[in-house]
Amino acid sequence: MDPKKKETIKEEELVESTQQTEAAQETEAPQQETPAQEEELTPEQALAKQLEEANATIEDQKDKYLRLSAEFDNYRKRTMKEKAELIKNGGEKSISSILPIIDDLERALKMMETAEDVVAVREGVVLIFNKFMGIMGQNGVQMIETAECEFDTDFHEAIATIPAPTEELKGKILDCVQTGYTLNGKVIRHAKVVVGE
Fold it and tell me: If you ran DSSP here, which 8-state letter would residue 165 be given?
């Protein structure tokens, strides 16, 4: 056989064997990397991992609970303080609206010392009274009507009964001894009345 041919055959065999070796290494390499990448956990390790995750969740929930509890406590304290402030100064608006009436009454008292006209003094007092009732009405206070009204235990308190002068006045209010008042529709003082029977 020709020596050149022998060399060519040897070179071809050498190239083939090199290619086969490289191919074998390429196929083996991924197989060797796979177990390292996909390392399976033992049951103890899996439980430890779950425990760690559960503890992290518990810590997170505990933190949220503590923050929420603190916020609610602050809210409760703030509302208690606001309620106490309302109770303490709740009548401020009403009192402020009555102050002009007190000023009018002071002026009326001074005028009464030197006034000789009783009718003028009476008219002044009536004006002050009407102004006062107007301010009370603005604050939700209303007088309970009694004149010849049917007796109603929700609004009236009978302190006496007398024979009715006519048949139509039986069960009706004949006289009001003390005026009653409502505040925003709620009775704050019953009217004391005399009822016909």
Answer: S
**Residue of higher predicted confidence among 113 and 71:** 71
In whole angstroms, what is the distance from residue 91 CA to residue 139 CA? 10
| Cα-Cα end-to-end distance for the chain | 155
pLDDT tens-digit profile of 94-105? 888 899 999 999
One-character DSSP codes across 131-195: HHHHHHHHTTEEEPP-TTPBP-TTTEEEEEEE--SSGGGTTBEEEEEE--EEETTEEEEPEEEEE
Rounded distance between C-alpha atoms, residue 79 and residue 71, angstroms:
12
- Residue 106's alpha-carbon distances to 62, 82, 134, 160, in angstroms, are 66, 36, 19, 37
Average pLDDT over residues 135-162: 90
For all residues of the chain together, what is the average pLDDT? 83
b/e sequence 10-28, b meaning 16+ C-beta within 10 Å: eeeeeeeeeeeeeeeeeee
User: Looking at this protein, which amino acid is placed at residue 185?
Assistant: G
Lowest model confidence (mean pLDDT) among 29-33, 87-91, 153-157: 29-33
Which residues neighbour 148 within 8 Å (Cβ) at sequence distance 6 or greater?
Answer: 169, 172, 173, 174
Structure tokens at 19: 């290619």
Strands 191-196 and 186-189: unpaired
Q: State the pTM of this model.
A: 0.55
Is 191's pLDDT higher than 90? yes
